[in-house]
């Protein structure tokens, strides 16, 4: 596949994901390099949805370490149970935060971030990474995002 995306202009979020997922699958097909695949996922999501920040944090020991991302500079390390990312890792579930200022212990890597969704990534029944997406708008994310972003992270081979 050429490394160009066909961006859909539909206002329906589900349709946007349904158009994007096969393209991400094609980008990942036959590519064993994890960093390249994570980088392309971030770029594809940012290009389609124009979110403020999209990136992966990888589990390294007892903390999350910044991995491939698209957007402004970010926090480099996050402890287990800290902020939205560390909490999603600890609870092993997707977290949707409509207003980050209302989330206890939110880590403000950027004051421009207003809402967030974090999806844990599993391999061998344990969390190996999280996908973190931030928006400058309040209440940006919902169950539609959770459903499709969970599908997208499951496309990646973390073994």
Describe this structure in words.
This protein has 159 residues and is α+β, with helices and mostly antiparallel strands. It has a single domain (13-153), classed as GAF domain (Beta-Lactamase, 2-Layer Sandwich), CATH 3.30.450. It contains four helices and six strands, in the order H-H-E-E-E-H-E-E-E-H. The chain has helices at 13-28, 34-49, 83-91, 143-153, and strands at residues 53-60, 63-70, 77-79, 95-97, 115-123, 126-135. Strands 3-2-1-6-5-4 form a six-stranded antiparallel β-sheet, sandwiched between helices. Helix 1 (13-28) runs antiparallel to helix 2 (34-49) and helix 1 packs parallel to helix 4 (143-153). The chain is globular and about 40 Å long. The mean pLDDT is 93.
